[in-house]
Amino acid sequence: MTADAILPIFVALPLIISAVTALSPSKTLNDALSIIIPAINLAGGIWLYQYTGEHGTISHTIGGYQAGVGISFVGDQFSAIMLVTTMIVALTANWFAIVAGETQARYYTPLTLVLITGVSGALLTADLFNFFVMIEVCLLPSYGLIAMTGTRHRLLSARTFALVNLAASTLLVLGVGYVYGVAGAVNIAALRGAAAGNGPMTVAMGIVVIAIALKAGVFPVHTWLPRTYPSTSAAVMGLFSGLHTKVAVYMLYRIWVVIFDMDERWNTLIIVIMVVSMLIGGFAGLAESTIRRVLAYQMVNGMPFILVMLAFTGGGGEQARYALAAGLLYTLHHMITVGALTLNSGAIEETYGTGTMSKLSGLARRDPITSAVFAAGAFSIVGFPPFSGLFGKVTIMLAAARPSDVTSWVVIGTIIVASFGALLSMMRVWRKVFWGRPMQHYPAALNVRWPYLLPSLSMMLLSLAMFVLAGQMWGITTSGADALLNVDQYTSAVLGTDAVGVYQGGR
């Protein structure tokens, strides 16, 4: 078996095991598989990163069909980095779900494995239509996960989640259909440069981008995210925070580099949207009443920090390399840090029965280690040392500063202001939940148990390691950016020498 034939296994394995867990009556087996399967895909992602670093991009077309016709999977260092990080989040979220007893629900494990199937496929697909298919594979189990337990509030949130994502999926498949109508192809490599300077293709791809931005929770289509994610359990929210929106980030980066050819005419629009999104995400959390609703706005706040880097790619060259590496570094930091904070708040909820800030106080004395984990996550979100957020924000500001024009000042100033808003939001949570008088209505001996705490603690230790190993992390993200920018190698791997349906109308 050749190395490229391993790519479909990333998708097939969790899908097959999800069927096994759906039929298995053994909770012990299901719990073990919910950890083992993302761990296997995690190990496979590390192998993929190392292999593609040595041998370049690899691609596999199912059934040996001709390139451009069959279902193609493609792997490079960029997709490998995203695969590794999403699997870390999935593994940790499932770990917390086991500890919190959430896997008592009969179909929790198979649903999460189907979600992992969709995420793995979306990160490895070479085709826009199959990306839509994999997004739907992600969403179908997500509808069940977000509604699980069936409380009224949770079902109302599930309805909103389903309606928004069904609308986004409809828009996405329409956009993909228009792309095929204009270009006669939906293979990403076959569409190289198709939306750069070509009106009909730009409109068609614009529909696709809007649909993906809706799924990413980007302004002005962001309000559904903080209304739905906090209404589910902490384990599910942690799972969603690191998987759903970051798959959208991955594809927006890929589309921008390959299909839009980093067309600079869109830079101003990207900057305007992302600047407003930063400000809303930074300050909107000040109005929320629960810990996880505040964290949901930090998710909204993180997306524009990542996506604004698309406007600083400068059409290619070293500037594009630096900007994309900075955006990727911030993506990894955000996935780990928000996941840690979400699971930490889940540990508090599991212990005290609530995440409402007005009902909690004095946890810094009662649960010092839990409080320290939250404080570390807050420092990382804001960009304070010694956590991954410092270098994440420093690198994106340095990338924004490189053009040395008005847009640089606007973006850097907004990053500072939005970070101040995030600081105020996190300080508000700290003041209400962790400071103050000791709670009188809970037994003095009650505190967060280690099993609840370890998943979030592990994630924050990883954030600390990312700070300590900043040089190595920058090397990893730079290699990911190099792979993303090596469009020649990507198209050669996917299309080969006998491809059909390659678009000929691009710039």
UniProtKB/TrEMBL annotation:
Keywords: Cell membrane, Membrane, Transmembrane, Transmembrane helix. Pfam families: Proton_antipo_M. Residues 127-411 form the NADH:quinone oxidoreductase/Mrp antiporter transmembrane domain. It is found in: Cell membrane; Membrane. Coiled coil: none annotated. Belongs to the CPA3 antiporters (TC 2.A.63) subunit D family. This is Monovalent cation/H+ antiporter subunit D family protein. It comes from Corynebacterium stercoris. The lineage of its organism: Bacteria, Bacillati, Actinomycetota, Actinomycetes, Mycobacteriales.
